[in-house]
Specification:
Blueprint (H helix, E strand, L loop, with lengths): L1 H5 L1 H47 L6 H28 L8 H19 L24 H23 L4 E7 L3 H7 L2 H8 L7 E12 L1 H11 L7 E11 L19 H14 L24 E12 L6 H4 L5
Antiparallel strand pairs: 1-2, 2-4, 3-4
Helix pairs in contact: 4-5, 6-7
């Protein structure tokens, strides 16, 4: 302290120099830190640019040609699948209007004969083609389309028989475009007949209400999704409820009569005594039935809405119809 008092000018100069050095050091440290951060960001951005330039999807001529080749291969596979679906789809033979009506009546008679004592059918059953039992289709083209539709409905009803469905309570179908046009529904008909670039199939809706048990329902749903069904189908809606909504009355429950099976059992015991002793090991006689099931034996009411899918001829070249930008 004495030296500072004796050398005030020099001490002031040294103090100012020390403060300036500290301030300069802080500024230098701050600038160096900012430089490091900016340098790392620059190097990272450069690495990203290099990675993008070297990526497989970079806009180079080689990648463009590779993409075109993959798109062509995919389009060929799609068209091959479409052609295969058309081959697997049952063919429809051309029919005249009078021939379709005769075919419809023959199939109605055939299915009624097959369903006797097996499955109950509606009183007025015609596969949903009721109007054609008394009138003819408008043209030969309409008769051919309706014939293919009838074959699918016939196959579906036969599958119901195979799955042990007890009753077919309702069978309805959507109308074709040719039927709507003939009936005067021009707007709906044009909407169905308008085929866009990607219009490769037509969905025909079938509604059914069935009375059956759980096993038959499971079997039906399974067979609709396998090759046992010749036509392409898709279950769009399934609603299940018990056929009976309330529980049984006490008067409806029939319990077994006590001793109904006992008389025979007494006779069997006395017969065994007469036979004498034996080393044969025999199981005991079954006990008398003293219980009956109250719930679980009721049937089900099932409502199904099924899409019957028909692939159109456009399925052969659907990939070629897609816009080039896709």
């Amino acid at each position: 302290m004495d030296w500072i008092r004796e050398n005030k000018p020099l001490a002031a100069i040294l103090g100012v120099s020390l403060a300036g050095s500290l301030a300069l050091g802080y500024l230098l440290y701050d600038s160096w830190s900012s430089y490091d951060e900016r340098k790392e960001a620059y190097i990272g951005l450069g690495n990203q640019m290099a990675a993008l330039k070297g990526a497989r999807l970079a806009p180079t001529e080689a990648n463009l040609q590779a993409k075109k080749q993959m798109v062509d291969e995919y389009a060929a596979d799609v068209n091959k699948l479409g052609a295969t679906l058309l081959i697997l789809q049952p063919k429809v033979e051309p029919l005249k209007d009078i021939e379709f009506q005769a075919k419809l009546k023959a199939k109605i008679s055939e299915i009624r004969t097959a369903a006797q004592s097996k499955m109950q059918l509606p009183a007025e059953f015609a596969f949903g083609f009721d109007e054609y039992t008394g009138s003819l289709p408008t043209s030969a083209a309409a008769a051919t389309e309706l014939s293919g539709y009838l074959d699918a409905m016939d196959e579906l009803v036969k599958m119901l028989l195979k799955c042990n469905v007890q009753a077919l309570d309702l069978l309805e179908r959507s109308k074709l475009a040719v039927e709507l046009k003939a009936a005067g529904s021009t707007a709906q008909a044009n909407a169905r007949m308008a085929q866009g670039p990607a219009e490769i199939l037509e969905k025909r809706q079938i509604s059914l209400i069935l009375t059956l048990d759980q096993g038959a329902l499971q079997l039906l749903i399974s067979r609709l999704a396998t090759t046992e069904m010749q036509y392409f189908t898709s279950v769009r809606l399934l609603r299940i409820e018990n056929q009976r909504q309330d529980g049984p009355l006490r008067s409806e429950i029939r319990l077994p009569v006590a001793g109904a099976a006992g008389g025979g059992q007494v006779q069997q015991v006395s017969a065994k005594k007469d036979e004498g002793a034996s080393d044969e090991i025999r199981p005991p006689d079954p006990a008398e039935v003293d219980t009956v099931p109250v719930f679980g034996n009721e049937l089900l009411k099932a409502r199904l809405e099924i899409d019957l899918v028909k692939f159109l001829d456009a399925a052969k070249g659907v990939a070629a119809q897609a816009p080039a930008g896709r």
